[in-house]
């Protein structure tokens, strides 16, 4: 029988972050919460469909700041362990069935693999962006815009953006109205996002301008799809993915 949220064991006495300015301390505590929650989910203590405690309850229970809780939840979203339904709450996702085609996150964190995947994405997603600009419905455009806004909000709050980055690209794939684009991209999940764009895999300190650049590139894609301009949408997506590849190459060359 699964435990209820109130039965979750507390971590080893984390100190409250209120009044502290150290982002490193915040990230360390967020990682502790993420590790504990992900273990609870994978061990079946929290089952698929179960609602997590509210943000306020987690803040009170673990004596940490809202920033710590939000970052831990963001990491769970990136790991595809939970989903947040706006105005309702955060729920545990059903574990994806393992397949031979899927690789472990560590394998995909190797730069050569991610670079190869970015090459594939450039061909696939450039065409998807053009089709999305031609075919998108108002509802599909809203989904793209929501993912864009969520990415910006997480970045502004200093939270992990990878889950929202992925959602942005998957929303564009869905707007093609060709299910195979969404299925192929969805198959890779968060592995689509270069490790320089998120904190789930250890990477050297990124250029602080990288994510603002990603945001501007996303905006150009969104605006082209919004005005139903396929050529501009394809050009903006191609530029974004080429730039992502160069950012990863730069990090690889700089840090080895």
TrEMBL record:
GO terms for molecular function: DNA binding; DNA-binding transcription factor activity. Keywords: DNA-binding, Transcription, Transcription regulation. SUPFAM superfamilies: GntR ligand-binding domain-like (SSF48008), Winged helix' DNA-binding domain (SSF46785). It comes from the Bacteria. The keyword Transmembrane does not apply. Residues 1-25 are annotated as: Disordered. SMART domains: FCD, HTH_GNTR. Pfam families: FCD, GntR. Residues 27-95 form the HTH gntR-type domain. This is FadR family transcriptional regulator. It comes from Lampropedia aestuarii.
